[in-house]
Amino acid sequence: MKLKIFFAAILLITIKSYTQNLTEKDFKKAEKSLLLETDKTKKALLLNRLAHYYIVRNESVQDIEISSRLNSQSFEIGKQLGSKDIIAASMHIDGQIAKRRKNKELAAILKNKALVYSKQNGLKNREAEIYKDMAFDFPSEDLINREKYIRKAISLFKEQHNLPAEGDTYYCLARFYEETPDSILKYTQKAIEIKKRLKNAEFYKEYTLVVRAYLARGKIKEALAYALQADLNAEDSDASPIWRSSIYNQLAITYEKLNIQEKALFFYRKAVTISRKSKNSTNLEAIQFNLAKYLYFHKQFDEALAVMKDIKFYDGKDCKIRYQATYMLLYCKLKQYKTAKIYFKQLLQCDIMDLREKQAANTAIAQYLLMTGQATKSYPYIQKLKEQAITEKNDKNLLEAERAFFSADSAVGNCAGALEHFKKYKSLNDSIFNNVNSQQYNDLQLKYETEKKDKNIIVLKQQSEIQKQVIRKAEILRYLLIAGFGMMVLFITLLYNRSRLKQRAQNKINEQNDQLKILLSEKEWLIKEIHHRVKNNLQIVISLLNTQSEYLDNEYALAAIQNSQNRMYAMSLIHQKLYQSDDLAMIDMAWYIKELVSYLKECFSTDQKINYKLDTECVELDVTQAVPLGLILNEAVSNAIKYAFNHTDNGQITIELGKQNNENYRLVIKDNGVGLSEEFELKGQDSFGMNLMKGLANQINGTLEIQNIDGLTIMITFRKRGGLI
What we know:
CATH class of the domain at 589-719: Alpha Beta
Shape: elongated
Radius of gyration: 45 Å
């Protein structure tokens, strides 16, 4: 019974481990990478892998929701990139999420949709993965459809020369043959052969299936050999806690069958300890139950009951045959018959269809009746046990049935029947025990322990060599530190003498520097004050012009005054920047252009929606160049706002300033408006604004160019004074 329970538990464990692409370390690494990843394709793949990790882990409802959110992000990026493989993978995970939410019909629809999409787009590997996943959607008894879908996956992987996936799929196929050890061995061997071709030395998953097959065959020696190899291989491969605990569980079962109780109990306890680290409730539950059964059979009833109560999965209400049977037997052994009777009544009311559960229930009921003095009522249940054991050719269960018949006959006083059943029990027990060759098992154990010791010796040698290197480096470092300390003392002495000589000269220099600083500070204050007053004077003129404009009705006169105000603001802005900054000589033109454009936007508050695009490099100019360029910029932008767009809503003014080559800089002001009229270009008419820009360009020794194509473009090319940036 215990072996059957273990097989069911290990199937659930291996299904989860098979589909889980990421280990815990890989998962943490992928999460960190996701935060830093900028490439959309790589980000989508990371999102997809993390979504798959959460849906496979499925430790809580929150895991399913996280998986759904990550998968939605991956799907959206896949659509943006037009990546069919990412889209197909996300569609597949949608189906898996629906299955975890217990919506089997929706899961089937979504997975079929993903399958059709993969076929239509020639995504053979993705198609194979979906087939392999869908094989697990069929119940365990529907082996025909399970194998059909798995073989489709194998065929597609072979076609794509995807050896790693092909090997995993053979391993998956082997797990389906729970009752057929020969098939388990056949397909597991194929998976191992493929791994060897790929030079992949991780065989512990396959070895656990081989152990399972040999235990089912009753070949305990072979099972122990592979269980020990699985443990060694898992240690070399840094297997996850869930796998290590499963292997320890196998070792415990195998040692228990060999009647090596000390090692069986050791590995059961070790399996429970490691399983707690895995945080997998299904795995932990199976191993705890095995430990409780072991303790029960070895008369450690209090500890067995404590282990059963520690199992979080069972709430004591539903028909969980193995739990109810175990609780009932434990309470009987502890002479708590009233409590045991509660579980006895529950068992009688359960509608049991599964043969294994029937065997467990009949065994427990028969034992309960025998222990509570109702031996006569136990015969029908013992007979059912015997018939099932004969049908299944299970000598161990038949042994238990004969022992139960012996106990029942002894209780009712049927001495002849009791003697006959005891003889059969003794004969079966001797037959089973004689199949064990203790010397061979001792050899296996010795080989296993020797290999572990050899590995420990190698590790110790490596640690010793590392320690020697550390000591050697420490000695070298010590000598270097001593030599360095001596050199440092000599150097400090020389520095001290040198510093005393310099100190006197430095004191004189400091006095002179202090005087120069005072003079420089006064000069800077005066220059800032000049700039401040110039700026204030220009602001006064602007205010006077503003006041004068209130008494004018002439449109052209008002426009002339506004233009003059704008030109003066352009100059005052430069003086304002100079007296506010620490650098009294240079103007940051990127800042200046931004501030001036902002001012002009406020001055010409029209209903038009004009977009201003500034593309300026960090160029610093002195006042003699900044002022003319500011006036040119004011003139060009003002004219563009007033005349270029004819009240349209899609106007754009672009201002660019940057270096052209090693010597020249260029200021460009362009708009996408109506431009100049053809008559203006042909006749060469000049306006005050044009004349002003030409004169200002000449003032800085620059050239003015005007292009009247798709709007108006004004370019001033000049050489910066005072060197290059």
